[in-house]
User: What shape does this take?
Amino acid sequence: MYESTWIFCLKRIFTLPFVLLGVSILTFVFIRFVPVEPAEVILRLARVAPTTEAIEALREELGTDKPFILQYLLWVKGVVKLDFGTSFVSKLPVAQELLAKLPATIELAITAFVLILALSIPLGIISALYKHSIIDKIIRFFTVMSVSLPTFWLGFILLYLFSLKFGIFPTNGKGTLAHLVLPAFTLALPTIGLFVQFIRSAIIEELQQPYVKYAQLRGLKNSDILIRHVWRNAAIPLTTLLGMTLGNLLGGAVIVEQVFSWPGLGRYLIESIINRDYPVVQCYVLMIACIYVLANLGTDVLHRLLDPHLMMKDRRD
Amino acid sequence: MNLGRKNHVHISKFISLTVLIIIGLLGLFAPLIMPHDPLAVDISKRFLAPSWDYPLGTDHLGRCVFSRLLLGIRYSLGSVLIIQIVATLLAILVGAFVSLKRGIIDFLFIRICDILLAFPTLILAFGLLGLLGPSLKNVILALILTQLIYYSRLIRSLFIGINEKDFIQAARISGTSGVKLIIRHYLPNVWTPIVTIVALDVGKVILEIAGFSFIGLGVQAPLPEWGMMVNEGKQYIRQHPELMLYPGLAIVLVVLIFNHLASSLKRLDQ
Assistant: This one.
């Protein structure tokens, strides 16, 4: 049993370098399509007149005058030595800059994730137990709303109400727990809606299974049946949502960080996009791909460990 | 009881559809209905309260908020229409091509999809925009590409799902091929799931377009896109929160209607 899970992991980890290779080639190809010359951008940023000679000199320095394939190979050679290039703007190593901004985003994402679980599990269960009741209708109305609201707008509405009107939370910045509440909630809300819908239908389906009737006939308490049996079975398919959740959180963080001036990866990305700081964008994309592939692998492994059916199916194959 | 519930669903669908059509028409005929030029700056008329002349008041540059909202319909609804239609049509081409050819092309297609799906869609779109540079055209391009990946993979698997069906085999044996086979025999049988999924994504794409503009990567000032208007309104959040409120409500209304209609479609499909 353990063996098959190990082999499964190894197989998946083995594909990671290929995915990263593909991602890096694609980003490189895309950069070639871009009509803007990085050297010109750097000169503009440094407030130097972009004359032809200056551009030529800088291109030589950056290595962008070399043929495409050679540029890519040089870049790969750097990456192998964990050198992801230097930022056009700050002149610092890109990896160092991104890693410095990673913890803030992780802090935000983890808090949001805790909020998602803490709110959507009880709401989903209540909604399923009292389906078609008034409580269910209210919860479902909020779930529909939560996936239809633009996060950036919601962020400002919350900011206006809770920071400016009532003065409960600080408007922006980072540090205390109070700073974390509004951004984390804004980031979590759309995913909470999805989770509640998912949990609701999973529980409703599970409640119709014959074993629930049997457990009730045996005289087990309803709360026991719910916690010990129904929830356990209903929670397994929930693991398949985890990969998507990470994607939502990382993507959503870009916007939420912008709203609350949160000093994380997302804000740095936008800044770099506007400054045309390609090495940063490229390294960011690679880093996210890496995190995402590993996280998806993690959820698949978790899913297999929780659901013995899957393992048996693999054995038969 | 049952009948009543059914009627209720129909009524809400009917209302949603009517409102959507009205919004669409307002967008289409915006230049004729707008009380003022949405781009005309008049500093002497900053932050006017709502009046008959200016139904929703004016913004920080004295521009008519109502006119800007009306013209904004074009950006939100227009872009989402272009994105979803172009992405779907391209996806049908790509999906049909790889599912009929199979072999090495199909293999490569699946690998490339796997690589691109290694990203959350939003991040992929951000990455593309980062390389292409900020503008509405590039937002549309980036979103077409991200949608295309999902849809072409979906259409490929739908096509392969009916590849072995008798009616397809019969059509092939009787010499139908290429475009005719796809249009006459494949598409009519996979049409519903495609339309449903494309419709379900509309709300999400509208939110993404608005989000990109809000961040400053999409529609650029002074054009009145709703996300852009929220962005401009945010500087005056203390004194004039309504400047941010209106465009946000417009986005919520349109997205809610699309989500509602799409979920009815989904129920029909099931």
About this structure: Chain A touches chain B through 49 residues (CB under 8 Å).
